[in-house]
Amino acid sequence: MTTDDDNRHFPEGSAELWIGSVPSLGPGGRDVFLGLGPGADEPGARLARLLLDRGHEGEEGVFYLLPEDLAARCERTGDRLAVTLLARRDVLAHSLRERPEEERALPGALPADPLDADRVVLLRRELTTGFDPVEEDGECRPVLLVDHAAGPDAGPEELTALFEEGEAGIAVLNAEWIPGRG
């Protein structure tokens, strides 16, 4: 359920996870954004950046990834919306095959996806919001992964402006919806 508060036109959240819109991607709708900035150096973030190379460019600066390459899961618990970034183990192994041993070991440091043992959890972020990412047809809206070089103090407005200026990329990730608890 989307509330009146969720229809406002300014971003809600932080540079790691926010609800907002990018005017150049089309009028209206609000989307779920997951920021991947230079300060995100945990193993999952490093692997996510590697997998972004598997994207196929649509509009300028917008890349589409196959769900088998990189995907998201959205779920709600009470007033919290959680977004989990997921990758298949075999895709990671293939992408890492010619990398140094230190990098090939990164997937082993990540937790398994509790719903699919063939996938690992790269990142998980949560936000308090009333926004509902499920569309009228019952499908979850895609999650937009923003790859940027802005500093750690950059907020959603600045990251959106960087994309508009061609200084940040957006990867469109297929997302699955897990109905809420609580």
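That was protein one. Protein two is written in the same sequence-then-structure order:
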Amino acid sequence: MSEAKKLHLIKCGICVGIIIAAFGILSGFICLARKNWINGLKVAAERTLPEKSGYKVMDFVPIESNLSTSAGCFALGGEASTDGDLIFVVRATTYYGPFPAVYVYHASNGAAEFIGFYMLNSTISKQIVLDGNDSCIKFWKSRCEILAKEYTASKKELKK
């Protein structure tokens, strides 16, 4: 092997090493930030629920779906909840930009209910709902129902 080829191979090796190191560093930051992301979603869910709803946001529920980058899920507890109730925080795009929308999935009837948008005052939140952006709310409502049903099906399979 000639000296020029060896030098080229060394340069390529260094370049690949730098790319692998950068990928490793980014992966490390993602792993470190995941806990803060989950805590932020939990806070959004807790603050959006009405104070006297009787629900309590419990543990994070991992979603094994392509939608998991736009949605976070938590188990619900408290006096108003039944076994299998879930709360979803999803990234919904509105006319005012993307906002966290909160849905409660009721396991008893298999339906999701839109609760509201996090960090929006009630006037703007109502305006978004009334402005014809209801299609976004309906879309995520149906997706939350699908995600919840997938989760309960996978949970039943694990018990077998």
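Strands lie at 56-60, 71-77, 86-94, 97-106, 111-117. Keep this in mind for the problem set.
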